[in-house]
Amino acid sequence: MHDQDRQTTVRAARRMIRCGLKGALATQEAATGAPYASMVLLATDAGCAPITLISTLARHTRNLVTEPAASLLIDLSNVAGDADSGGRISLLGRFERVDASAAKARFLARHPAAMGYAEFADFGFFRFAALSAHMIEGFGRIVPLSSADLAAPAVIAWGSPDAEALALADLKQRWPAVTGLDADGVDLRRGARVDRLDFETLIADPGQAIDAARRCLGSATPLGAVS
User: Cα(222)–Cα(217) distance, rounded to whole angstroms?
Assistant: First the structure.
């Protein structure tokens, strides 16, 4: 694969991860070693790592405490049509608990209904550190990816979580569907539908990223991008 094609594929993988509202999580049963599959809600951190909010009482969480290694499937295929022609990505790696301040704002912007239980004592935020991935862009189009491929090569240098939150709040005043901003582009959600507006290039400067987001939102008409 040529370098340019590889870069396009890698960026498509990051887009797929960022567009995942939920995923199928496969953990290992502590008692038997058997695989256990469950559904978790997803968002991503600034570096494109999936994050989730789960209860320590849940079976999959108990499995992860014993064995953090897991697999996460994000399926964006169109189940109403030919699912084999749709995109999906299987991530292999390890889950790790993270400080709520680093994940809470981004997760709740994507899943506002989770505010009702995010403060419960038995719930915590977990981040998935992918070691490799297997992406399927359609029938017969299969691409193996490394951890270096999946990590965003740049993040916006906000300086503080408050600066990111204020920038997001400012964008949401005009475009309520906005749920996230990163160096790759802008996340959007309305109801169960998710979309992305990708920047032409990676942007790590906060002011430039906000300006690029406004230009993208002002000129495009994906779901909810216009007021």
Answer: 9
CATH class label, 1-152: mainly beta
Burial class (CB in 10 A: 0-12, 13-18, 19+), 117: exposed
The DSSP annotation for the chain comes to --HHHHHHHHHHHHHHHHT-SEEEEEEE-TTT--EEEEEEE-EE-TTS-EEEEEETTSHHHHHHHH--EEEEEEE---TTS-GGGS-EEEEEEEEEEE-HHHHHHHHHHH-GGGGGTTT-TTEEEEEEEEEEEEEEEETTEEEEEEHHHHS-S-----SSHHHHHHHHHHHHHH-TTEEEEETTEEEEEETTEEEEEE-SS----HHHHHHHHHHHHHH--STT---
Task: Name the CATH architecture for the domain at 154-227.
Answer: Alpha-Beta Barrel (3.20)
In single-letter form, the type of residue at position 118 comes to A
Domain limits, the chain: 1-152, 154-227
The rounded distance, in Å, linking the Cα atoms of 64 and 125 is 13
> What was the pLDDT predicted at 226?
44
Neighbouring residues of 32: CB distance < 8 A, sequence distance ≥ 6: none
End-to-end Cα distance, the chain:
41
Write down the pLDDT at residue 173: 92
Is 202:156 a contact under the CB 8 Å cutoff? Answer: no
Q: What is the pLDDT of residues 117-140, one digit of tens each?
A: 999 999 999 999 999 999 987 766
**Residues 68-97: what's their mean pLDDT?**
84
pTM of the prediction? 0.89
